[in-house]
Structure formats: C-alpha cells, structure tokens
Design goal:
GO terms for molecular function: acyltransferase activity. The protein is α+β, with helices and mostly antiparallel strands and about 200 residues long. About 40% of the residues lie in helices and about 20% in strands. It is globular, with a radius of gyration of 18 Å.
C-alpha cells in the first residue's frame, strides 16, 4: 500500500471518494458536511490531501483545510474504503496528514469535529485534546460547512456552543511546553516510566 501526498494524478479517484463519504454517512446515520467534486478535486490537485492506494485501487483519503487566515487547520473528510477498514489505514493516513499540516502550517492549531470513536482515538494519540466549540475557529465559512449536516438544527439551537460532534484540538503552543518540560532532567523518571508502559 502507498500513502502519498495527493496530486492531479489522483483526480481519477475523486468520484469514488465522494460517493463513499456520502454512503458511509448514510449508513452511520450521522451528519456530514458534504463536499463537492470541485472542492475535493482542488484539494487533491493542490497537494492538500493524503491518499492511500493499493495496486491502483483507492484505499483511503483525508484533506487539509485552513481557517481564520491560517490560524487553524482541520484534517477533514477522513474516509477508508470499506474493504480496507480495521487494518490501521486511517491511523497511517491521519499521521501523514497531521505531519503535512504541521510542516505547512507550523503555528496553526489543528482541530477536528467528529462523532467517530476511531477518529477520537487517533486524534488523542496525536496529542489532540477535547475542547469546547468556542476554542475552535470562529470563521463563518467553517461553520457554514455544517449546514449540510443532518444535525445543523441542533447546532443552531445550542447557539453553536455544542452539538453531537466532539471537538478536539492540537495546540502547538502546549506541545512546545510539553517537549521542553519532558527534556528536563527531573522528568527523566517519568519518561522512563512512560517508555516501560508503552512496551
Ligand atoms: C473511521 C474510519 C476512517 C476508520 O478507518 P480504519 O482504517 O478502519 O481505522 P484504523 O484501523 O486505523 O483504526 C484506528 C483505531 O480506531 C479503532 N476503530 C476502528 N473502527 C472503529 C469503529 N467503528 N468503532 C470504534 N473503534 C474503531 C481501531 O480499533 C483502532 O484503535 P486502536 O488504535 O486502539 O487499535 C473508517 O471506518 C471509515 O472510513 N468510516 C466512515 C467514515 C468516517 O466515519 N469518517 C470519520 C469522520 S469524522
């Protein structure tokens, strides 16, 4: 399996990806911000997406969006083709798209809204923390994306303070502090303990 930063050679998969995003949301009965073919194609050709393929077959996909003039980044539209699920593909794709987001926008906060346990697990392994919606971008355009979601009425009733999705945020500032603290000698014991735990 190959996991690559997207380019125009991957445009051939765009209809299949869009269809699977829609079908999966229907099956789960959850809301989804619907993405047009044009929007997804732009992400793919600009290199703002990560795509997994195997023997020229589409396996998985995720793309980068920026909000509030680059202060926030979202890794959105994560989707794995049903026959490739539960093999760690989403984890690999999210890791790659997260790394790409950090390279392109090192000072941006990275966030996501999700109802999915798999995504919550992956995000928390990457260092995201659950937050309230007011911690996210307040860019109108981002929230307009929720208009296509079946739960939009709930979001509006709650005055955009919360909804069915869990908000998760990676703040590079907090991460910087953590890595400095963890490098200090007095934290060596904790680090050792942690590495034993992860074995
Ligand atoms: C959600 C989705 C992307 C997961 O893809 P995947 O390749 O099967 O995920 P992975 O194999 O990398 O699993 C990641 C983790 O989530 C867990 N997981 C996977 N699917 C899960 C599910 N349906 N419910 C609960 N946990 C799940 C895995 O056990 C794994 O946990 P672990 O690291 O503790 O072992 C895939 O099921 C999908 O495309 N679903 C439809 C679209 C969707 O829901 N997208 C997310 C929108 S926010």
């Amino acid at each position: 399996m190959e996991i690559e930063i997207s380019s125009s050679i991957h445009l051939m998969y765009v209809s299949e990806i869009q269809q699977e995003m829609y079908d999966s949301a229907q099956r789960r009965g959850t809301g989804i911000a619907k993405r047009s073919i044009e929007y997804l194609s732009k992400k793919i050709s600009e290199g703002n997406a990560v795509i997994a393929t195997e023997n020229s077959e589409w396996v998985g996909f995720c793309y980068i969006e920026t909000w509030s003039h680059g202060k926030f980044v979202a890794n959105s539209g994560l989707i794995v083709s049903p026959k490739f699920r539960n093999r760690g593909v989403a984890t690999l794709i999210k890791n790659r798209v997260f790394q790409l987001s950090r390279e392109k926008f090192p000072n941006a906060k990275v966030f996501g809204l999700t109802t999915g346990l798999a995504v919550m697990k992956i995000n928390s392994d990457l260092g995201y923390k659950p937050v309230i919606y007011s911690e996210l971008t307040q860019d109108e355009e981002f929230w307009n994306g929720c208009k296509n979601c079946v739960n939009y009425e709930i979001l509006m009733k709650k005055e955009r303070k919360n909804c069915l999705c869990t908000a998760m945020l990676f703040d590079p500032e907090n991460n910087k502090t953590n890595s400095v603290v963890n490098n200090q000698p007095e934290n060596q014991y904790n680090n050792e303990k942690e590495s034993h735990l992860s074995v």
